[in-house]
Amino acid sequence: MKLIYIANTTLPTKRAHGLQIMKMCDAFFWQGAVVELVTPKRFTPAGFGGKDPFAYYAVGRNFKIKKIFCLDLIVLDKVLGALAFWGQSLSFTFFLLFYLLGQKKALIYSRDRVSLFFISLFFKKTVFEVHKISRWFFWGAVRRAKKIVVISQGLRDKLTQQGIAPEKILVAPDGVALADFNLAAESAAGRQKLALPLDKKIIVYTGHLYSWKGADNLVLAAAYLSGNQQVVIIGGLPQDIRQLKKMAAGKAIKNIVFLGHRDWAQIPYFLRAADCLVLTGTKKAVVSEKYTSPLKMFEYMAAQKPIVASDLPSFREILNEGNAILVEPDNPRALAMGIKRALADQALAEKIARQAQKDVWPYDWRQRAKNILAFIHA
């Protein structure tokens, strides 16, 4: 079976979807599909010039990447605003349709609502992987798709409330490449390699810092931690980092460092070098409370380190009291207490870390691809 994965993005990218897309294309290959990843031909983002996506994401060259012409107006987004996105997206879809004319027998798989909205007018074998609820073109793509894959039960509930047949939907949470976390290095050796202090307890958060991620609670929680407990935040866009740095400075919080974006290959080493891993969310945003399935959650579980997480329905689909310390969301003091508990109670920390590592096994990318293909062919 030929599977064409359509992704309207640049690769590599600072955003987590790049990792998920590349890992899933590789996983589909290992389940017997002939995979072609189709992306737009766009300007390379700053910092990624010359970087090969296969090497960057530690993925074998098991599929080809086809680039389609588009009007890359994203570079003018500060001038054009929303027109930059729509111009790029619609022009990519236009030229994509011409490319797909000779691919009628292929299965079309995508996370992109705009492309799929138009493709589904002409192609019946379409699968829409839904990560959030959107407005323009979203519901048309959902209703015309042959099958729908969602990353959380919360998303499935929302779609069925809107009249989408339950049998058309598969809940497939995000995942992890377990092999990427088979690291022999001990924490001390990893810290030396990553220039992290050896004499402090290291609390790590990785990923983006959008407001709905709730990372501001970790910044404020740092104020309740001791001086030898260091919060390390890896990732985030420059504007989000500036905002959180300003928040920390305003509260005179000094036991927190922002390392910015790091190549994905370094992330497993940062996680393994940590004493505690933090997963924040917020009840103030429905995408965080009900819809999300963060890649970092599965990576944390694979890293065999204790997890302290906001107690949200979206996280509860995977986490529980047996594999994580769950704390009240939007409460920095409660988050700090959870972190202190993970650092002080070694027996508990080791217990939940071992259980998390066991619980994450069903969420390997290859197993996810196997489940999705079985659902599509059922």
UniProtKB/TrEMBL annotation:
Q: Write out the transmembrane intervals.
A: 79-101
Q: Is Membrane a UniProt keyword of this protein?
A: yes
Q: Which residues form the Glycosyl transferase family domain?
A: 191-358
Q: What's the superkingdom here?
A: Bacteria
Offer one example of a GO biological process linked to this entry. Answer: lipopolysaccharide biosynthetic process
A GO term for molecular function: glycosyltransferase activity
Q: Which UniProt keywords apply?
A: Membrane, Transferase, Transmembrane, Transmembrane helix
- Kindly give the Gene3D superfamilies that the UniProt entry links to this protein: Glycogen Phosphorylase B (3.40.50.2000)
Task: Establish whether keyword Disulfide bond is in the entry.
Answer: no
InterPro entries per the record?
Glyco_trans_1 (IPR001296)
Record protein name field: Glycosyl transferase family 1 domain-containing protein
Organism listed in the record: Candidatus Portnoybacteria bacterium CG10_big_fil_rev_8_21_14_0_10_44_7
Organism classification: Bacteria, Candidatus Portnoyibacteriota
